[in-house]
Write a structure and sequence with these properties.
Layout: H1 3-6, E1 17-28, E2 31-42, E3 46-50, H2 57-64, E4 72-77, E5 80-81, H3 87-93, E6 95-97, H4 110-121, H5 126-130, H6 135-151, H7 167-179, E7 185-189, H8 197-212, E8 216-220, H9 224-230, E9 233-238, E10 241-246, H10 248-252, H11 255-260
Parallel strand pairs: 3-8, 3-9, 6-7, 7-8
Antiparallel strand pairs: 1-2, 1-4, 4-5, 9-10
The structure holds adenosine-5'-triphosphate and magnesium ion.
């Protein structure tokens, strides 16, 4: 049975834990950015991760994607420990991410930006591809790139330099590049930052659509309307400590959350 077939209301607390975070602490020269955080993401779940500025959300993403290592604790993905693994290996295992500050390559076309993600899906470095990775591989990369551009409605802009895209479309380009790695888990760091309400609504539908098609998503976001409308579960961090981990309705009336976060407004 695939995770998508197994999906059901009780799954979120079931055995199909795609991502398991166990007692993770991260200290930066005396500052504890995350303290003994334990949580998980089940296959095909859409989970929100919220908390005030500096709560440790991006730090958790950097730990999951291998950019930094935990000081204590362990992260497991798809049954394997990620301890000591480099970011490119973790990406190849099936974790795709976007960055809080967009990291697209402005002087490359939209198509080429997404191809970089697709190369990873085929286990190729850009250098191997330049050296001629074989017709079948390059056809596969082009096909995957076109498919992903289609998913994010950027096909018409394939030949445009990324720098010339509108800000809103650049956000989708960043998501497209992550999708092109063919991830099992997509982690999105503030995808709605800088978008207006209409664009945020469209993004919410897009993310929910990905999950309906079988994707698993962990979403960091300050826009409460987005998080509360689409997430099945919401994890709340405050000063590096997990203070809540429940369905959106429960989290919204949790006194500790109201005090530390929601009370401060959007
Ligand atoms: N590489 C680093 N070196 C030193 N301190 C860091 C580093 N990365 C993060 N921190 C610190 O860890 C804490 C958590 O930061 P983090 O970026 O994870 O917060 P965040 O929840 O993503 O905040 P925001 O909502 O503003 O993006 C902050 O105090 C930050 O200054
Ligand atoms: Mg952050």
């Amino acid at each position: 049975m695939t995770p998508a077939q197994a999906r059901g209301p009780t799954d979120a607390r079931g055995d199909q834990r795609l991502l398991e975070i166990s007692g993770v602490t991260r200290v930066f020269s005396g500052l504890t950015a995350l303290k003994a955080v334990t949580t998980h993401v089940a296959a095909n779940e859409l989970v929100g991760l919220i908390g005030p500025n500096g709560a440790g959300k991006t730090t958790l993403f950097n730990l999951i994607s291998g950019f930094i290592a935990p000081t204590e604790g362990e992260i497991r993905f798809d049954g394997r420990s990620l301890s000591g693994m480099k970011p490119h290996r973790i990406a190849r295992l099936g974790i795709g991410r976007t960055f809080q500050n967009l990291r697209i390559l402005p002087n490359m076309t939209v198509f080429d930006n997404v191809s970089i993600g697709a190369l990873a899906a085929f286990g190729q470095t850009p250098w191997q591809a330049l050296a001629g990775g074989g017709g079948a591989v390059s056809r596969g990369i082009s096909e995957l790139t076109r498919d992903v551009l289609d998913q994010v409605a950027l096909s018409d802009a394939a030949g445009v330099l990324a720098a010339n895209l509108s800000y809103g479309r650049r956000k989708y380009l960043e998501i497209a590049r992550a999708l092109a790695t063919r991830p099992k888990l997509l982690i999105l760091d503030e995808p709605a930052a800088g978008l207006n309400d209409t664009e945020t609504g469209e993004l919410a539908s897009f993310i929910a659509g990905l999950v309906r098609k079988g994707m698993t998503v962990l979403l960091v976001e300050h826009r409460m309307s987005l998080v509360m409308s689409i997430c099945q579960r919401v994890i709340v961090l405050a000063s590096g400590v997990k203070i809540a981990d429940a369905d959106p309705a429960t989290v919204q009336r949790d006194p500790a959350v109201l005090e530390s976060y929601l009370g401060t407004g959007e």
